[in-house]
Amino acid sequence: LLKILSSSLVFSLLYGCGSETAVDKSTTPTTPTTPTTPTPTTPLASTITGTAADGYLRGAKVCLDVNENGVCEDAEPQDTTIVGGVYVITVAPGIDIDKPLLVEVSAQTVDEDDGELVGKPYVMKAPAGKHQFVSPITTLVQQEIENNPALSAADAETKVKTALSMVDDTEVSLFDDFVAKKKIDANKEKYTDLHKTARVIAALIAEQTEALEKALIEAEGASTGNEKESFALIMDSINKHLARITAQISVDGKDSAKDFDVKTLKEELDIQLDTKDISAQIAQKKAAAKREKIT
Fold first, then answer.
1. Scanning 61, 155, 187, 196, which has the fewest C-beta atoms within 10 Å of its C-beta?
2. Are strands 133-134 and 46-52 parallel, antiparallel or unpaired?
């Protein structure tokens, strides 16, 4: 009997130890998993691709006018147009792309309408968000926005269309490439007239830019520093005569914008920039722009 009790005691002790060991194993804590840190994404550059035209312009500087001062500065994203007036501008991350586009046409820029050098420099613009095509026509629209910053691009376009007697031409956009559209679009006659109008306006901008710079040099000894206000005076001068320009073009009779005699029409229109008291005019433009910002 003693032997049986001893054996039972030993068995009980061994079984108890085995059970204790099993419980210990089941309660052993597991090592927590370290969360994975997400890899930060690198901001991507933006690209602006488009075309500059009076006729297609080759060798013109195109820039995103980041500080909106009317001048292409070295630090601003830019490109030089190639065949067909094409530009591709890379905009670095962090730069606001919602800015106007500016085209500086030099005397050495080639106008593909006739393959000749432009001869006199001038500037063109396009509104923010309308970067695909820059022309003297989009320049009219952008100037409306600069004169009244509360205007949307669509509202400014309507104002210019009204001045061009095109307000009922709802299928024609002033932001379209009229050089291409006049060949294939159902409204090709309207686009041909737009091309002719653009050629006249480009010639007037170039001529009046030259006159204004001469007047500023005579008045102040320099022609730089107020480019935006100076350009506004030029565009306001041309805008007053848009109805006359379009009326003359409508009776021109030539089908081709390339054969259109810009020089003769410009002489007949005789649109001159008022350069009297030019410094005072610029000061007034600057004061008006400040008032618009406040309101």
1. 155
2. parallel
Instruction: Please say whether the dihedral angle defined by the alpha carbons of residues 200, 206, 209 and 211, taken in this order, is positive or negative.
Output: negative
The pLDDT of residue 174 is above 70 = yes
Contact 104, 72 (CB under 8 A): yes
- Other beta carbons within 10 angstroms of residue 125's beta carbon come to 24
pTM value > 0.90: no
- pLDDT at residue 225 tops 90: no
Q: What is residue 135's DSSP assignment?
A: B
Which of 101, 104, 94, 114 has the alpha carbon at shortest distance from 44? 94
Greatest extent of the chain over all pairs of C-alpha atoms, in Å = 140
CA distance 212 to 219: 10
Q: What is the DSSP string of 238-257?
A: HHTTHHHHHHHHHT---S-S
> Read out DSSP for 177-188?
-HHHHHHHSTTH
Estimate the crossing angle of helix 188-220 against helix 136-147, to 10 degrees: 60
Nearest to 63 by CA among 118, 84, 52: 52
